[in-house]
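// run 5 | inverse folding | seed 20
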């Protein structure tokens, strides 16, 4: 069966909710305006429906890769969000630590240092 925008959107919505949680997705959807609704649709279909929904990686593996990429690129807000999502993906604090060690080697110590601070604060917040 050919994949359509509607099937990618439905799969993306399901995956996005599974990874980020209903509260986050409801908040993002509730804050959408006519200006950013096309962007929300794009990430739901593209990131969540076309990439995160693929079978080749587990959610845990995708979570680890995503954390490393966000850390390497310095996307701090998204990094914290994806660290919080590990509660749903099965990635452990040890997985996060190992990903950030890779960031230090391949993307630089300053990027990893910043990400480690964010990870520590986010994990501590999650433990409360």
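// decoded
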């Amino acid at each position: 069966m050919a994949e359509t925008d509607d099937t990618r959107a439905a799969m993306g919505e399901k995956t996005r909710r599974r990874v980020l949680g209903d509260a986050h997705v409801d908040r993002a959807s509730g804050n959408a305006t006519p200006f950013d609704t096309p962007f929300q649709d794009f990430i739901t279909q593209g990131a969540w429906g076309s990439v995160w929904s693929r079978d080749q990686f587990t959610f845990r593996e995708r979570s680890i890769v995503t954390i490393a990429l966000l850390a390497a690129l310095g996307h701090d807000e998204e990094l914290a969000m994806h660290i919080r999502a590990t509660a749903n993906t099965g990635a452990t604090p040890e997985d996060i630590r190992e990903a950030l060690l890779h960031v230090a080697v391949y993307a630089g110590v300053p990027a990893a240092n910043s990400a480690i601070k964010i990870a520590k604060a986010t994990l501590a917040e999650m433990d409360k």
